[in-house]
Amino acid sequence: MQTASTLTTDRLASVAPNRLLSLDAFRGLTVAAMIMVNNPGDWNHVYPPLEHAAWNGWTPTDLIFPFFLFIVGVSITFALGRGAEVAGHGVVRKIVKRSLTLFLLGLFLNFFPKFDIMTVRIPGVLQRIALVYLACSLIFLQNTPRQQLYILGSILVGYWLLMTLVPVPGVGYANLEPETNLAAWLDRTLLTPAHVYKPARVWDPEGLLSTLPAVGTGILGLLTGAWLRSSRPDTEKVAWLFVAGCFTTLAGLIWDGFFPINKALWTSSFVLLAGGLAMLGLALSYWLIDVKQRRKGVLPFVAFGVNAITVFFLSGLIPRMMSLIHVNQPDGTPVGLKEYLYSTYIAPPFADPTNASLAGALTFVLIWFVILWIMYRKSIIIKV
């Protein structure tokens, strides 16, 4: 007779026999958090830690996207394995194809439902993931970990010098203000205000120049993945990854003194802070899940993690589709289906609208967990 824990272990092994379960769980936790912060019940009532920092500084929400890009880097080392040895066997073509697919999926989300080519936002989250995946994959195939470290250093220092020393055309001096920095100038020059993030108007948080340090976040993942794939003892891997995470986080906090931590600009200090914290999170997950085999409660996160891109894409698409379905409220006012369900069934029991908004976000995540759990039980993994 099998116990519940044995069944859980068997399920984990059957679905992902060659996967690093701690990486799947860490990815799943990250994407679940991403879905939660992107789908509050009411955008006017959100707890401060679940919002992005207004400009300089950071909140827990600001760490979610760089955590995902870090995980992309780690995943590349496990997916491509031998690096340059496999570069000549159609791997580059597959990398380009996957990157293009991710980019087009992100562009589709921006197009839907208006499909207005004149005003569509070109950058986006999936687009940045696509570009970071492409760049980091090619860097991994052609460079050793030592060379990757040099590339990372060059990117972080080079971006810092660009943003703080190069005069901004039309402004006349280098600065880090929201609408007058070099990255904002490049976005509105090459993309034009019609094709950037609408709330920002003249710059984009996933814009062109800031994608360069975002690649640095992915390279930190490459270096971490190479370390985890090494033949060293597990205790040594975890110990040194904790040390590296603490050092990297501290370096980011020190650099913040003269190149502020800023997610919108994806500053070099932000790369180090978020990358260091991601190292610490993955080290803890690896120690508990893969080394100590403590897998109780891991299954929900693994279910999210093995279908991360699928759930992220659909969790962005379905609310847009629901907004096209209008339902009359008791007073006769038509609202979108999602807003109607929230105001009718979720919000009323809560006296505090902020708690109601959080309940709406958690409900959305729970619904997706049920769907992903069924997919996981049936070993359905949709690869993009």
TrEMBL record:
<feature type="transmembrane region" description="Helical">
    <location>
        <begin position="240"/>
        <end position="258"/>
    </location>
</feature>
<feature type="transmembrane region" description="Helical">
    <location>
        <begin position="298"/>
        <end position="318"/>
    </location>
</feature>
<protein>
    <submittedName>
        <fullName>Acyltransferase family protein</fullName>
    </submittedName>
</protein>
<feature type="transmembrane region" description="Helical">
    <location>
        <begin position="95"/>
        <end position="113"/>
    </location>
</feature>
<feature type="transmembrane region" description="Helical">
    <location>
        <begin position="207"/>
        <end position="228"/>
    </location>
</feature>
<keyword id="KW-0472">Membrane</keyword>
<feature type="transmembrane region" description="Helical">
    <location>
        <begin position="264"/>
        <end position="289"/>
    </location>
</feature>
<keyword id="KW-1133">Transmembrane helix</keyword>
<feature type="transmembrane region" description="Helical">
    <location>
        <begin position="358"/>
        <end position="376"/>
    </location>
</feature>
<keyword id="KW-0808">Transferase</keyword>
<dbReference type="GO" id="GO:0016746">
    <property type="term" value="F:acyltransferase activity"/>
</dbReference>
<feature type="domain" description="Heparan-alpha-glucosaminide N-acetyltransferase catalytic">
    <location>
        <begin position="19"/>
        <end position="164"/>
    </location>
</feature>
<dbReference type="Pfam" id="PF07786">
    <property type="entry name" value="HGSNAT_cat"/>
</dbReference>
<feature type="transmembrane region" description="Helical">
    <location>
        <begin position="149"/>
        <end position="168"/>
    </location>
</feature>
<keyword id="KW-0812">Transmembrane</keyword>
<keyword id="KW-0012">Acyltransferase</keyword>
<feature type="transmembrane region" description="Helical">
    <location>
        <begin position="63"/>
        <end position="83"/>
    </location>
</feature>
<feature type="transmembrane region" description="Helical">
    <location>
        <begin position="125"/>
        <end position="142"/>
    </location>
</feature>
<dbReference type="InterPro" id="IPR012429">
    <property type="entry name" value="HGSNAT_cat"/>
</dbReference>
